[in-house]
Amino acid sequence: MPPRPDTSVIRASFKGSQGFELSARVDLPAGPVRAFALFAHCFTCTKDVVAAKRIASGLAAAGIGVLRFDFTGLGSSEGEFANTNFSSNVEDLVNAATHLREHFAAPAILVGHSLGGAAVLAGAHDIPEARAVVTIGAPADVGHVLNHFGSSLEEIRKKGEAQVTLAGRRFSIRHSFVADAEEHRLQDRIGSLNKALLVMHAPRDTVVGIENASKIFLAAKHPKSFVSLDGADHLLSDPAAAAYAARVIEAWASKYIPQTPVVPENEPASLAVPASPPTQ
């Protein structure tokens, strides 16, 4: 989907948790930027997954700039996926926030899809400027992702590494990933979030069940909100579902973002970083 006429998309990159260059896109409004958001994609997805592109485009059209990036070893980013784990993903997220802070403005909104939602819940504490956190189809426990490894999980435990098929693609998963996932206690992070939280989930999500949304919501303190993505699938593959999610996020987050633009209309945000060609 090409950018809307009133938005633009520029390329960016920054160093990730392991020192590799991570590929990013920044969706920018044509006029004043009300705030910036940071988007974390789903497990083994990329910044260009349909949901990420459409939500970023929708938010940009409403005046919110969005940085979306590929985690280490995924998409166009450098590094080896097999050497990563949830902790390194969270560090990648914090580094992405640093890039926004240094070149545009610190993110006021954090949005995470699926395991990316768990990452924003875990990493929000290290991004003090973030005032609002949004999860979309997120698991309430990092270890939930291990349920998708099937019989390969036992092989990983015994041999230290195995090939796992996820969304039709083969990935090498090491025991360090499994051990790291099992060590995280996301409930504690949610309870001490100290930021506004919006939990979005599809009731018929067959990848991450709706009960995860209930656990996240109950663990969080107010202010918190829940929105049902009725009729949507886990990946928000229906364009209408992604567009709806973007509209709801913008309306909800408006209460928590600055009242004055962080980048005025007479100071194009594209000048805040080294020039790079626009991308579709």
UniProtKB/TrEMBL annotation:
Protein name as it appears in the record = Alpha/beta hydrolase
Q: Give the UniProt keywords, A-Z.
A: Hydrolase
Concerning InterPro entries, the annotation shows: AB_hydrolase_fold, Hydrolase_4, MAG_DAG_Lipase
Segments forming domain Serine aminopeptidase S33: 52-143
Origin species, per record, is Candidatus Segetimicrobium genomatis
Please provide, alphabetically and separated by semicolons, the GO molecular function terms listed in this UniProt record: hydrolase activity
Pfam family, any one? Hydrolase_4
Q: Which domain of life is it from?
A: Bacteria
PANTHER family reported in the protein's UniProt record: PHOSPHOLIPASE-RELATED
